[in-house]
């Protein structure tokens, strides 16, 4: 079971998606939930509440797409480090949560098109704020530039992690298909998984209903505290209501960072234009706490 799979992976006889699918049989054979869950996350993609492996996070350069009647549109580098610092480095860091088959297809498409880079656009709210901050009406998009070589790294790291796991399991259970998995052997398998994935392996998987509810309650309490703090800092009620609507209407928490940035930028502009006494640095600190 394991030997053949290791050979097929090592000699690239199968895709990584196929390798993970076959490895799921091994994971169920040794009855290890951490291994099963990691495989499922890599196959199906990571959810908002999951702890995503570090090899799926990488630095991106920022570009603005500018439009001109003379030369058409083109991408030019843009410095958003000052804004990035206000939101704890969320602009320049991209977390790739898609399933492995999606990433493998992206790599194939990039190779066929002979492309080295791809772009991911920010929401229109961010574009409006950048246009206002830089006073550039020719900016029609703000985007992260993805180096496709980063996708190769995700595939390679996933492959090596899977191989390390299978090789260690094969060393411990060379006759896995014929072996009965008693508690001692299950403990051995569990220790192997822990050694490879770390002590936080179980935190990379879906959580139970009670724990999820605890996270939800905790986040709700944090939101209430933030809204109260903003009132104390002089933020007008209409802006606080707008922020609350943003939070309540966006179920995908990973998308809130850019919306918080847009809201903060609009508030700063309003404070300057209308002379509203708002403690902007303190406001930014409070908003940042929602993303921690």
Helix-strand layout with pairing:
Layout: H1 2-10, H2 16-29, H3 33-44, E1 57-59, E2 61-68, E3 72-77, H4 81-86, E4 93-95, H5 100-113, E5 117-121, H6 124-134, E6 139-147, H7 149-172, H8 183-197, H9 209-232, H10 237-249, H11 256-274, H12 280-289
Helix pairs in contact: 1-2, 1-7, 2-3, 5-7, 6-11, 7-8, 9-10, 9-12, 10-11
Describe this structure in words.
- The protein is built from twelve helices and six strands.
- It has 292 residues and is α+β, with helices and mostly antiparallel strands.
- The protein has three domains: 2-53 and 153-204, no CATH class; 54-151, no CATH class; 209-289, no CATH class.
- The strands form two sheets. It has a four-stranded antiparallel beta sheet. The chain has a two-stranded antiparallel sheet with strand order 1-4.
- A hairpin with a 3-residue loop joins strand 2 and strand 3 (72-77).
- Helix 6 runs parallel beside helix 11, helix 9 (209-232) packs antiparallel against helix 10 (237-249) and helix 10 packs antiparallel against helix 11 (256-274).
- The longest helix is centred in the middle third of the chain and has 24 residues, at 149-172.
- The radius of gyration is 24 Å and the shape is flat.
- Residues 200-217 have low confidence and may be disordered.
Strand order of the largest sheet: 3-2-6-5
Number of domains: 3
The total of helices stands at 12
Distance between the termini: 43 Å
Oligomer: single chain
Proportion of β residues? 5-15%
Order of helices and strands: HHHEEEHEHEHEHHHHHH
Question: What share of the residues lie within helices?
Answer: 55-70%
Low-confidence stretches: 200-217
Structural class: alpha+beta
Rg (C-alpha, Å): 24 Å
Largest sheet: 4 strands, antiparallel
Q: Given the C-alpha coordinates, what overall shape results?
A: flat
* Total number of strands: 6
- Average pLDDT figure: 79
């Amino acid at each position: 079971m394991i030997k053949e799979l290791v050979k097929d992976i090592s000699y690239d006889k199968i895709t990584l998606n196929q390798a993970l699918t076959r490895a799921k049989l091994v994971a169920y054979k040794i009855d290890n939930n951490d291994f099963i869950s990691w495989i499922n996350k890599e196959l199906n993609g990571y959810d908002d509440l999951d702890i995503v492996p570090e090899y799926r996070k990488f630095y991106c350069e920022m570009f603005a797409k500018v439009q001109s009647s003379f030369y058409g549109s083109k991408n030019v580098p843009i410095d958003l480090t000052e804004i990035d610092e206000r939101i704890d480095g969320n602009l320049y860091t991209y977390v790739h949560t898609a399933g492995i088959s999606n990433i493998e297809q992206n790599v194939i498409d990039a190779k066929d098109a002979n492309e080295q880079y791809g772009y991911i656009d920010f929401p229109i709210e961010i574009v409006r704020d950048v246009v206002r901050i830089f006073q550039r009406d020719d900016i029609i998009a703000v985007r992260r530039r993805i180096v496709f070589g980063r996708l190769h790294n995700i595939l390679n790291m996933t492959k090596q992690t899977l191989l390390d796991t299978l090789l260690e399991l094969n060393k411990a259970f060379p006759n896995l298909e014929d072996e009965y998995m008693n508690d001692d052997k299950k403990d051995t398998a569990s220790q192997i998984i822990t050694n490879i994935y770390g002590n936080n392996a179980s935190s990379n998987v879906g959580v139970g209903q009670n724990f999820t509810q605890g996270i939800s309650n905790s986040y709700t309490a944090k939101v209430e505290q933030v809204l109260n703090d903003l009132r104390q800092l002089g933020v007008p009620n209409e802006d606080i209501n707008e922020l609350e609507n943003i939070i309540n209407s966006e179920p995908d928490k990973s998308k809130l960072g850019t919306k918080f940035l847009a809201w903060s930028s609009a508030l700063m502009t309003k404070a300057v234009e209308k002379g509203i006494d708002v403690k902007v640095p303190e406001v930014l600190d409070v908003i940042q706490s929602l993303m921690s």
